Amino acid sequence: MTRSGAAYAAGLRDGRMVFIDGELVADVTTHPAFASSVRTVAGLYDLANDPANRELMTFPSPTTGEPVNLAFAIPRSRDDLARRRRAIRAWAEATLGLMGRSPDHVASYLAAFAGAADVFARGGEQFARNVVAFHEYARDDDQYVTYTIVPPQIDRSNPGHRQPEPNLYAGVKEETDGGIVVKGAQMLGTGTAISDWILLSCIHPLPEGDEAQAISVAVPVGAPGVRIHSRRSYARAATSVFDYPLSTRFDETDSLVVFDDVLVPWEHVFVYRDRAITHAQFFETGAHALGNNQAQIRFAVKLRFLAGVAHRVTEMLGMAANPAVQATLGEIAAHAAMVEGLVEAQEACCEIDANGMAVPGRSPLYANMLLQSSLYPAVLGLVRELCGGSLIQLPSSSKDFADPEIAADLARYVRTATSPSEARVGLLKLAWDIVGSEFAGRHHQYEMFYAGAPHVVKGHMYRAYDFAAAGALVDAALDGVGLPP
């Protein structure tokens, strides 16, 4: 059943090995680099656990009948996808679309895995049973699973088995009666430091010789041998919530995850040394579509938030009636509306696969993914244009308001016709934190490369688009056309 935020936080005190700034973190729930994001995720769990949100956020578990998170549901119809969208959007709105690896993300992949267990059965029936059992466990115990599915960037000119040292890319080191021993590293562990489980696999096509990396396994974050090396914490570097209202609450962190002789029991192995199934688990099960559908619901909320920031700033600065400003706001709104429309189009164009799962329409899905990398920087640029120099001329920190002499100058000179100084500065600090801070820079990079290399997404779009229907129009245009007699 759904769990409370307190139960989620308690589960993180499992002896996990998380490192940041040269130190081992004793407790991620209290450490300044992670505590605020733990509180944010705990708030998501409380939202779903609230009986008032039961209809919106949950469905009855097929095994226990208890309410469980809708992100784990295997959609069977267009209506199921729409209901799922509403639940995911509620969580995304709680984080302003700023947490890309919230618990509903990998839950979507697991649902699609379980909905197409026959793909995993190609390696042996036990692997199909394992993936279904783990999905049921994660669903009924409301587990937070993140993934590491990209190898580290050591030498991208060579595959894993030709790296300068063995076991650099995470993969099988040896097999035992009790399971497999995994060694190596993987990126990008977004949210991993504050999650319960890691799904370790590889989404890149693997060449012959990389069978050791051709696995899909579930590993507890606190398992012996797992080490998590976090990037710089924007939450810890922030001076106050007033100065960095987003960095302080929504920094989910990204990590390099090292697996140092980690024993994975056989029951948590879903794919074993099979390159074809490793790839098929993402693209033949509908997991890539369902997982990225969740991501785009979140992205649509993020763009709506940016549109709201831009509009509110122009209103505060007295520019909202300017036709040129309205034109720019309209352009931002068009981008946001297009993404939302393509999300809903995925429901309208959904297909029921051979296993009875409703797979979001891939053509609008990949169109959205392809546009995402260029659209997000464009929207940031438009918001910057509207804010202008107001983002630069800001008080150094909230401490300026505590000094009577400084505060008097701020009250007189740093205000607008409708907003006193503190409100003006607070809104512009918010705008800076989404377009100009270090936190904002990470999000800029994150959305540009969220879907991977642009040529990869273009390939997905090429395969998903109905060129046959497009070609039929060409045939119709050419029908009866020939050289004159």
Describe this structure in words.
This protein is of the alpha+beta class and 485 residues long. The protein has two domains: 5-283, Butyryl-CoA Dehydrogenase, subunit A, domain 2 (Beta Barrel), CATH 2.40.110; 287-467, Butyryl-CoA Dehydrogenase, subunit A, domain 3 (Up-down Bundle), CATH 1.20.140.10. It is 48% helix and 13% strand. The chain has 18 helices and 14 strands. It has a six-stranded mixed sheet, with no helix packed on it. A four-stranded mixed sheet has the order 5-8-9-12. Helix 11 packs parallel to helix 13 (362-387) and helix 15 packs parallel to helix 16 (438-448). The relative contact order is 0.11. The model has no long low-confidence stretch (mean pLDDT 95).
A few lines on this structure:
This protein is α+β, with helices and mostly antiparallel strands and 485 residues long.
Task: Please write out the topology.
Layout: H1 5-11, E1 17-20, E2 23-24, H2 35-49, H3 54-57, E3 58-60, E4 67-69, H4 78-94, H5 104-115, H6 117-121, H7 125-140, E5 145-148, E6 171-175, E7 179-186, E8 197-200, E9 215-220, E10 226-230, H8 234-237, H9 247-250, E11 255-265, E12 269-272, H10 275-283, H11 287-316, H12 323-348, E13 351-352, E14 358-359, H13 362-387, H14 404-413, H15 421-435, H16 438-448, H17 454-464, H18 467-478
Parallel strand pairs: 1-10, 5-8
Antiparallel strand pairs: 1-2, 3-4, 6-7, 7-11, 8-9, 9-12, 10-11, 13-14
